[in-house]
Fold each of these.
Amino acid sequence: MAGNFWKSSHYEQWILEKHDLLRERGEDLKILAEEEYQKIMIFFVNFIQAIGQDKNLSDKPHTSDKNQSSVRMQVIATACVYFRRFYARRSFKDVDPFLLAPTCIWLASKVEETGVLSTTKLLSAVQNALKKWPSLNQELVIRQQLLHEAEFCILEIMDCCLIVYHPYRPLSQMAQEMKASGIPKVDEIYQDAWKICNDSLRSDVALLYAPHQIALACIMSSCVINRREDDEQLKNWISEMAVDFEKITEIQQMIFNMYRVWRNFDESDQLLALLGKLPRPQAQIPSQSQQQPLSITNKT
């Protein structure tokens, strides 16, 4: 992505302080324990990814290329960040997260310039994604009008700050620098670091830290996974990075904690009870002035 991160709305408005994030979630955290909140967020990131990976969706809606079977990861990652940004400012009771999730994909596909997704295909992908969680035993009825209303709500809450800088580009640049430094087997570290970047969307790191910090934390975590943390070449290369290593350690701890919560999250056993705790929207949307919630219909 072109542009300067340090002059972007991402940096100026959407790198938050952890205490501010917890304060904004105060209303939901009266009902949910913090770990329960994390599990709900993990589920909805999984849900967004399931929608985005549906074979009926495509980066190029008008192409006949069978290899274009789902929206690319950049769109999914941006959608996940939009989802987290929205609920960093508002409660689950304001907009039904089952509506917000596909709306975030719809908006992200426009911003990432992959072409506007067909609403018919998108809503079909939502139903297909739900089948991955048979314990939910429900079908969601989402009208196109609700997508438009929810999109407006996202734009308002995010103050139209739609550009998201992801860790993928700095991660790729760091991998090239590692190769240029003569470090062996960089591809192994890079591939696992990329997966960790994807998984980090299930944590709050995208709301709290800069992309290059997340990228380096993912590389260092990958070194641990690949048992390369004692590699002298790697240690020397990392030590030369001009970063705040205290923040890198914080990111690693958040990612490892996310993996712990995710590993202990038995969706088939816990998901229904967690969703049952969520305050559900009752009426219509959303503007900051009207404070009315936006809801969808369930078919059971």
Note: Strands lie at 139-141, 297-299.
Amino acid sequence: MSVDRHIEEIAFTAPTKEEIFGRSNISEIELGLLQMQILWILKRQSTHGYEIMKMLSELKNTKITQGTLYPTMQRLESLGYVKRREEERKIVYDITADGKATLDNACASFTRTFFGIFHDYVCGKCVSRDLVNIGGKK
């Protein structure tokens, strides 16, 4: 006796991004740390690639190469998060409105995901649990 004849055919459709993530404005990419840092730098000031490399090297405490930076910049530009312009024979990068919105969403998501870890690891003594209410628990 076959089990298959007792199972009705059920049409299956894959869930949408909105159903999975609970929001309709999900970005096309989940930003990685390097991309978040680049957008953060550009949100603070427009600048050229060499300056971005220097700032990232200081932030990450490791050398960032052109081979790492420029493909990432091209990706951010192709997604509409960054635009470039020429200024005094240099290419200067600016963050776009979409880039700012994506950075804000990524930072909010990052904060929700990692706040408890940071709090326990770094700020256990400097932030009172009464000031920060996570998940409705004190």
Note: The two ends are 57 Å apart (CA to CA).
